[in-house]
Amino acid sequence: LYAMPFTQLAGASAAAKALAPTACTTIEEVGSTGVGALTLGFLALAVSSVVMVAKAYSADAERRKYYFCNAFICGVATFSYFAMLSGQGWTAIAGCRQFFYARYVDWFITTPLLILDLGLVAGQDFVTIAAVIGADMLMIVAGYMGAVSVVTTVKWFWFLFGLAMFLPVVYSLARTFRETVITRKDPEMIELYGKIAWLTIIMWSFYPIVWLFSEGFASFSVSFEVVAYTIMDIISKAVFSFMIVSAHDSLGSPSQAPAQSREYV
């Protein structure tokens, strides 16, 4: 009578062991090309961080919020790239492949700041900004969980969860925020938002593609993955930040105060 529970327990334990990753005798690690990309990413983001901090301290209060936001975006990314360049912030995942989880820590912090920056430029209300940031953070968590998943089916469910969170983020940046900035009737800010929003949407659309063939199918080499992510990080963070700096005069417009909550009847 009591044999069945123990038999089931033994079967469950055997199944768990079968799903657990085997010890790796050899790990596919980043090569010299990837290390070069990490070095370039670290230098580009470090310089951008210094420039943003300098601009923040020389700007008035209205412009300073943009520059400090940019400084933290580039600063956190700089720390992440230093960690990866120093051989930290990684582990081996299924398939004995080097996986840089430091990148996900970076994205979990910097992508919400990028959305905040876009929201400030658009003049969007903070409740909507917070909602978009929430979806974005769930997207990053889903991407991380998918990358470290051992069970293939679970991995692809996480990938789909991440895409499900990505869609409302893109919709908000392309339409909700854009509609708000148009109501400001400031041609320069409308033009600036259009540029940085589409830069963000286009760059962020490449991330799941790289994930698909790196952490997903493991078709790309670790070095190619690192190079691809580095290029996208530099453009979506450093270039993004300097595009905002280039609109220095427009950022001081008093019409850019945060939008007031709308009343619905």
The poorly predicted ranges are 255-265
Major beta sheet, strand line-up: 1-2
Largest sheet: 2 strands, antiparallel
The percent range for strand residues is under 5%
**Helix share, percent:** over 70%
Mean pLDDT: 89
Using the CA coordinates, give the radius of gyration: 22 Å
What's the tally of helices?
A: 9
Order of helices and strands: HHHEEHHHHHH
Large-scale geometry: globular
* E-strand count: 2
Distance between the termini: 67 Å
Structural class determined from secondary elements = mainly alpha
Descriptive tags:
two-stranded antiparallel ribbon, globular, mainly alpha, 9 helices
Task: Indicate the topology.
Blueprint: H1 3-19, H2 32-58, H3 61-85, E1 90-93, E2 97-100, H4 102-122, H5 126-148, H6 152-183, H7 187-216, H8 222-245, H9 248-251
Antiparallel strand pairs: 1-2
Helix pairs in contact: 2-3, 2-8, 3-4, 3-8, 4-5, 4-6, 5-6, 6-7, 7-8
